[in-house]
Amino acid sequence: MPTSTSNKSKVTKATLLDAYIREYCLTGHRPPSIYAFCDAMEISEGDFYNFFTSFDQLEASIWKDAFDHAYHRVNNDDELAELSVRDKYLTFAFAWVEVLKERRSFYVLSFKHQWTPFPESALKELRSHAKKSFGNWIEEGSSNGEIERRFKVSDHYDEALWINLLFITGFWMKDDSVGFEKTDAAIEKSVNLGFDLLNKGSLDSALDLGKFLFQNFR
Q: What is the mean pLDDT of residues 82-86?
């Protein structure tokens, strides 16, 4: 039987996450129940519920922690503070993949049947968290002129960076090249394209053309 008293000091968020990932990778699927998971760890269900209410919430935490690890590598590094927003996001994207590599077996196994690399529960929480974080960079870029302010369109720039993160993650999960070289190239190309569109230039030309066509051929 679980012995919460003797093991209580051992139970932390990190130990739960590590045990869950290990169990998932060994069996190829989620533990059958929270009870079974806690029994294998020799803790009580109460110890689990001190940190999470479900496996969905636990998995969402794994992704959020991975994001924070990569984001803070960039945002909290004084040496990177002077980088352009484009280069900050580019550095983040490479850091993101490096963080995922540490537990690649879990990420690929857990979500291999999803159309997106994240399950619905993790997707919802991570999307909100990521967009809020990206919003800080977008505001910085808009203030210094690196990112073009556009009526209404600017409100969705954080979504554009989120979609780019989805693309990078999905590409990496399917990448079988040595050292994930193809993912490195995909990051470079997708981030550069994304920020080209956020700058004044190609998108503005497309919007101008669309406006012209609408005004003259409606």
A: 93
